[in-house]
Design brief:
This protein is mostly beta strands and 318 residues long. It has two helices and 22 strands. A four-stranded antiparallel β-sheet has the order 2-3-4-8, with no helix packed on it. It has a four-stranded antiparallel β-sheet with strand order 5-6-7-9, with no helix packed on it. Pfam families: DUF2415, WD40.
């Protein structure tokens, strides 16, 4: 399918270092965007394996449970910010100042830890105290909090998909180990990407069967990360394969899909060329554009055709 207003737009000629071969969550796109420039935001004493931003903070997790948090003014597999007070037990919420942010940390030691990040803390090096810890039977690779802050979905080194709420927990089953998960803006749908190249979408109102199943271009090629747009009018789902391909899916029906063949240093790739994808993210749709960002050779932006997206029967995805 077609619909990209430009094949690519190089933003920054950065060369990110990917220290974890499987978990690829190294692209974030804050709500506030600016021009194409690069700067060293912080120099760490360890190699970061995952990053996250939200609620005015940036966090980076490392190999040996290192955790760095800075305000914008065991292996940590993924980090996720949330105001998830409604997920925490009520006795914990009573002990926390109102308005504080939470950081959800997924770990290789079969746990999820929820940290309280005081809004008055401009910089925290090595956060060590958590307010809640959840235990599992497998390493947890990624967790995502629903936009309404009522549920957490987690995936790891098993076929289990864990759906956690304040007073209940249940499991769905994927086809292989899970590497990433995401929530739709409505908090009704969640997606999981798996090691065998499948992406499943469930509706929380009926989880007995997946709502949709999507596949990688390369058979059995691992899907590393999945994202939904954060603004209702676009309603897109994006997921990346381990190498070379990014998929944009119409999340209104999950029937229409566009595949982007990743660029290499600004040039269109041939089918023989391979590009490692280290992360993807959507920009703030309030600025009327979305951008998958990825790559070892730099960061690239693709503009979404948001005008066509407002027409339900339009064939343009991105």
């Amino acid at each position: 399918m077609t619909g990209l207003s430009s094949p690519y737009l190089p933003v920054v000629n950065a060369k990110p270092t990917a220290h974890h071969f499987a978990v690829k969550k190294r692209a974030i796109c804050p709500d506030a965007t600016a021009g194409p420039s690069a700067l060293t935001y912080e120099t760490l004493t360890y190699r970061p394996y995952c990053i996250s931003e939200g609620f005015g903070f940036v966090a980076a997790g490392g190999h040996a449970s290192e955790l760095f948090v800075r305000g914008r003014s065991k292996i940590n597999n993924s980090l996720c910010f949330s105001s998830c007070r409604r997920i925490l037990p009520s006795d914990l919420c009573k002990r926390e100042p109102p308005g504080d942010t939470h950081l959800i940390q997924s770990n290789n030691d079969c746990s999820i830890r929820i940290f309280n990040i005081p809004d008055t803390s401009p910089r925290l090096e090595i956060v060590s105290e958590w307010v809640q810890e959840l235990h599992f039977e497998e390493a947890i690779n990624y967790s995502a909090v629903s936009p309404d802050s009522t549920m957490i979905v987690s995936v790891g080194d098993s076929c289990n998909v864990h759906l956690i709420a304040s007073n209940s927990a249940r499991s769905q089953y994927s086809s292989d180990y899970g590497f990433g998960c995401a929530w739709s803006e409505s908090s009704l749908h969640f997606a999981v990407c798996s090691q065998d190249g499948n992406v499943f979408v469930w509706d929380v109102r009926s989880t007995s069967h997946p709502l949709a199943k999507l596949k990688s271009v390369v058979p059995k090629a691992a899907c590393r990360t999945v994202k939904f747009t954060r603004c209702g009018f676009s309603e897109l789902l994006m997921f990346s394969e381990h190498q070379s391909y990014v998929h944009i899916v119409d999340a209104r029906t999950y029937q229409e899909e566009q595949v982007i063949h990743a660029t290499l240093d600004g040039e269109e790739c041939t089918s023989e060329q391979i590009v490692d994808i280290t992360g993807i993210a959507f920009s703030n749709e309030r600025s009327a554009r979305g951008s998958p960002r990825y790559g070892k050779s730099g960061i690239y932006e693709y503009r979404l055709d948001t005008s066509a997206r407002r027409t339900f029967y339009s064939t343009s995805i991105a």
